[in-house]
Design a protein that fits this description.
386 residues, alpha+beta, four-stranded antiparallel beta sheet, 11 helices, 14 strands, 19% strand
Length: 386
């Protein structure tokens, strides 16, 4: 009991400090401990056949207005558009070694790591029940099926997520000041989710489901988790530079533990390594590997978002999250006007997008400061091209 009380106090201190000192758009990279996958000496080397695109150039040249700081278009096995204007700081957070935050694109990358964990035999399948894990005992997540968390339909809409407050996926209904991304999972669930029961399974986009998936994977993989990250990013995607998942445990905290329920989906990589990771997904899908079959499984089991409107977000801005009809396995599917094509989308707040068109073997990677660029012109229009 004393141990649990100490953990809760620590978590609340971390949450208070993080919000008081760092009221930034994301979670400052240097503030938290991380899981790191180092770059490969045999990293994938891109070929290029570059062209200038007037629509992309217009958005990049007006970056202070549009927020667009990086754009990559990959097709015919080459980079064909490559434009960037990356500032020294990103929403007040210094950019180190070109690392750019994923925001909620990291949710999709958590799923991708989970797919590798299934293929490596640590998890049986997307139909595995989350049993035997004391962190979620006596909460609504106990004994749930993994695919329901992956599809954001775990019946948690009474407690957390966008069903409570649209476009705000990390706050609790019981206490809106609590950010689920800044408190270790065990602390959060013990304090706010004891004796909770799941409701009817409906699509409820939220950060807690993703962090539960990530930490369940860490639990199942155990001491091999670093090995798994190296497999996914260093060996498979052949990244050039280190990539990182942040932890909810801050740097210099009183705890030096490297294990525990500290996993958070916040992900950092440079612009080309985001493309390398996306290319690895495309290659798996098209080569029908085990990981490719995982991606196809979550595509086949995707669910309707049941949105009332596809007219953009509250500011009338578009991205792949607000212009897709379905969701599956932490990815966005069925883009309006392109729903017959197998296109996978990753979306992060502020307009971060990675979109993979498996049918046309085309990838678009967008990094932004804010979502005021013309998504329909530089993303949707490019996807529609033959």
């Amino acid at each position: 009991m004393k141990k649990l009380l100490a953990i809760i106090v620590l978590g609340l201190l971390l949450n208070t400090n993080a919000q008081a000192k760092h009221k930034t758009f994301d979670y400052p990279f240097l503030y938290y401990n991380t899981f790191e996958a180092k770059g490969s000496e045999n990293h994938y080397k891109f070929q290029s056949n570059l062209r200038k695109d007037k629509d992309v150039l217009k958005e990049i040249k007006n970056t202070k207005k549009t927020g667009l700081i990086s754009y990559l278009l990959f097709e015919d096995d080459k980079i064909v558009i490559d434009e960037s204007d990356i500032p020294d700081k990103f929403q007040g957070d210094t950019i180190i070694n070109g690392l750019l935050p994923s925001h909620s694109m990291g949710k999709s990358l958590v799923s991708y790591v989970t797919g590798h964990a299934i293929c490596e035999g640590y998890i049986s399948s997307v139909d595995e029940k989350l049993t035997g894990w004391d962190v979620i005992e006596n909460t609504l997540y106990e004994d749930q099926v993994l695919i329901d968390l992956l599809n954001m339909q775990a019946g948690d809409q009474r407690y957390v997520g966008e069903r409570i407050k649209p476009r705000n996926d990390n706050r609790l209904k019981k206490n809106q000041s609590v950010n689920v991304n800044t408190i270790p999972l065990e602390i959060l669930l013990k304090k706010y989710f004891q004796n909770t029961k799941k409701s009817k399974p409906v699509y409820n986009y939220n950060a807690l489901a993703t962090n539960t998936i990530m930490n369940y994977t860490i639990f199942k993989v155990g001491d091999d988790y670093q090995k798994l990250l190296n497999k996914v990013f260093k060996e498979d995607a052949k990244i050039k530079n280190s990539v990182y998942f942040s932890k909810t445990l801050r740097r210099g905290s009183v705890s030096d533990e490297e294990k525990g329920e500290y996993g958070r989906y916040s992900f950092y990589a440079d612009r080309y390594d985001y493309l390398r990771i996306a290319k690895s997904m495309m290659d798996h899908w098209n080569n029908d590997t085990c990981v490719g079959k995982y991606l196809k499984t979550i595509y086949e089991q995707r669910i309707n978002k049941n949105k009332k409107s596809y007219d953009g977000d509250r500011s009338g801005q578009f991205d792949v999250a607000v212009y897709t009809k379905k969701y599956g396995g932490q990815f966005h599917f069925d883009i309006i006007g392109l729903s017959k094509r197998k296109i996978l989308g990753m979306s992060g707040q502020g307009g971060q997008n990675i979109i993979i068109d498996f049918d046309r073997k085309r990838i678009i990677v967008v990094n932004t400061i804010d979502m005021h660029y013309n998504w329909k012109k530089i993303v949707h229009k490019k996807l529609k091209q033959k």
